Amino acid sequence: MTHQVNPVRDRLKAAGLRITAPRVAVLEWLAVHPHATADQVAEGVRQVLGSVSTQAVYDVLGACTNAELVRRIEPAGHPARFETRTGDRHHHLVCRSCGRTEDVDFVRGDAACLEPGDAGGFAVDDAEVVFWGLCPNCSRAK
């Protein structure tokens, strides 16, 4: 019997998490639908698995976020969103109107303000930048 390569199962195993159908479905769905809300993930996973509770999806998202398999972003005034793009420095563009969220790759240089002038004794290990504006669809609608 040969071992079939399944990146999602391998990532769960490497993170020390049990491989369950809801965890696999959540990670696979998020890989194709980044920046989804928990409710959107639950709806998408139900289309794959049939019956799964919203609480189960929240539990999976929490466990996968803690294991750094999923990144949670929380744009002000919008529901939390989740993505599987982790382990790199990237930022986000968020539409003020519809909440559409897109990745923005990290840019090095003077334009990147990622270190505070005075950290106040904090050991800073990360920075999150959110750019706000209107997406093309909302711009056209105005």
Query: Rg, please?
Result: 17 Å
Strand elements, count: 5
Mean pLDDT: 89
Terminal Cα separation, in Å?
59 Å
Order of helices and strands: HHHHEEEEEH
Classify the helix fraction into a percent range.
Answer: 25-40%
Sheet with the most strands, sense and barrel status: 3 strands, mixed
Beta content = 5-15%
Count the DSSP helices: 5
Broad structural category: alpha+beta
User: Could you name the ranges where pLDDT drops below 50 across 5 or more consecutive residues?
Assistant: none
The coarse silhouette is globular
Strands of the widest sheet, in order across it, are 4-3-5
Structure write-up:
- This protein is of the alpha+beta class.
- It contains 5 helices and 5 strands; from the N terminus they run ααααβββββα.
- It has a 3-stranded mixed sheet, with no helix packed on it. A two-stranded antiparallel ribbon has the order 1-2.
- α2 packs across α3, α2 packs across α4 and α3 crosses α4.
- The longest helix has 13 residues.
- The radius of gyration is 17 Å and the shape is globular.
- The termini are far apart.
Care to give the gist of this entry?
This protein is 36% helix and 15% strand. It is of the alpha+beta class and 142 residues long.
Provide tags for this entry.
142 residues, alpha+beta, 3-stranded mixed β-sheet, single chain, 5 helices
Secondary structure elements and pairings:
Elements lengths: L6 H8 L6 H12 L5 H12 L4 H13 L4 E3 L7 E3 L6 E6 L5 E5 L24 E4 L2 H6 L1
Parallel strand pairs: 3-5
Antiparallel strand pairs: 1-2, 3-4
